[in-house]
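Thread: quick sanity check before group meeting

JM: Hey all, I'm pulling together slides for Thursday and realized we never actually wrote out the predicted structure for the chain we discussed last week. Dropping the sequence here so it's in one place. If anyone has concerns about the input, flag it before I start.
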Amino acid sequence: MTTSNETKPCIICSKPIADKEYVAHVNACLNKSSRSSRSTQSVPRKHSTCFVCKSPFASNGLLNHVMPCRFHHEYCIPCIQKSMEEHIKSKTNPVCFTGVCDYQLSKYDVACLPFDEDMITHLSALVTIERRAQCPKCLFYGEFQTMSRFQKHVASCDPEDMVPCESCRCLYRFHQLDEHYRYCRNIPVHQRQQAFIDFIISKSKHPFTPVQVRYYIELQKQKRRVIGPHEIVDGLAAFERGNYWKIRAQQDASCRAQLDDYEKQQGANAKRNEELRRRYEELKADEELKAKTCRLCPHCKRVVQHMGGCSSMICGQNYHGGDQQSGCGKTFDWNQALPYIPMVNTVQEQMKSALTNQKRVVHTGIR
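JM (edit): ok, ran it. Output follows.
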């Protein structure tokens, strides 16, 4: 079960933010950045120091920049500029800090650096990793070469205005859906499937081929999992994250620890799910046995088991004495007692009843 204490780094300032506050925080960061230049992502800190020169930002008044690596390394502007200039000079892929933190910067990460357009252009040409930025509203990923383009997208993004097509499952705005559906329902099935795959590719964190996406979707169908756009995009991101650590572990022994940690967490999750499944099967078997051998006392509704003999019963003990247990002590006839309903079946009936009693929502103008 996901808890409200989980956090993830803000895509603007890289601070760890609680999930429930994430959208509001990113919007606040965007509003701040839109009122100033690109360097507003680099702000004075009161208690932090530069990762390279160890200068405290408060004492010298320097601005700092936080890298979106998992350690959130902070640099003063002169140090990070010197580091990036060395990458330009050596024509190497820009990373957080060579030899220490090998986090590779994406083109979006480079666009967020507090440099002029010329330096940003030179650094972007050196980027080899293809990783897209995530919109805090629709939670899809996109290719944004500059911060201004990202801000423009977020400002116009409205997830509540996006509706899935019943035929191809791609998301469209309300005013586009009717016209699209008339077209989509008349094209062959394979074209609808390809349209959905193309949509997923355009919204994924990493670049995937149509064959890879199609194969992943088929796997989810076999496992009877939800295959909505967001579920697929999130699943592909997690899948690629695992592949990344495997490749990096082969290239650099220092990444072996990250891979071991990732695989350990995956194994722990699988073990936990298997344990929960085993407990559920045991509960189900126990409930089915109780349904066959137990009924409810008509007076106190306590579960009573019939061990054989006549149908005369006393709640909490044998009819002729002995085997004293908790119960109301009143007599009743076994054949007239209410049947015991298994707990598993009770939960299922409650869910069915809840679905049946839900009000029907009708969207006018949508066919």
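AS: nice. The CA atoms of residues 216 and 235 lie 9 Å apart. The longest strand covers residues 101-104.
JM: adding both to the slides.
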